[in-house]
Amino acid sequence: MSRIDGHPVGHVALTRPGDREDAVEIMAQRGMPVERSAVVARLFVLPAARGRGVGGELMRTVAVAASDLSLIPILEVLAKDRAALRLYEDRGWEPIGETTHRHGSRSYSAVALRGPSAGGGSEW
After folding, report:
1. Using CA atoms, how far apart are residues 87 and 93, in angstroms rounded to an integer?
2. pLDDT tens-digit profile of 49-94?
3. CATH label, 2-114, candidates 3.10.25.10, 3.40.630.30, 3.40.50.300, 3.40.605.10
4. Which strands make up the sheet holding 106-114, listed edge to edge?
5. Which of 13, 62, 66, 110 could lock onto 42 through a cystine, CB 3.0 to 4.6 A?
6. Angle between helix 82-90 and helix 54-68 axes, rounded to 10 deg
């Protein structure tokens, strides 16, 4: 959780993958160590706090936590959310494949990404 002046303004979670994580399936297809995957979820920043570095700090925090646990952080972003994709790629996240995000009866194109390795490079 991120705070400004003692008030919560953002949050991010790092969790073990569920049974139907498309990013994990993509990892398996690419020969990546699925057992080391961790899903970055619930990233949000209050609108009033945006543009103040909160999102970047939350992503750095989750990357360090994953590294400390020898885990590979993964996430999915809707393909239409170009600003979010740029944010992640600018911070060393690498697209690993395309998937479909389902919400109720609707489906949306999404991109699966993996976070930078503990050593700062993209190799695991």
Report:
1. 9
2. 989 989 888 988 998 999 999 999 999 999 999 988 998 898 899 9
3. 3.40.630.30
4. 2-4, 7-15, 37-45, 72-78, 106-114, 94-103
5. 13
6. 50
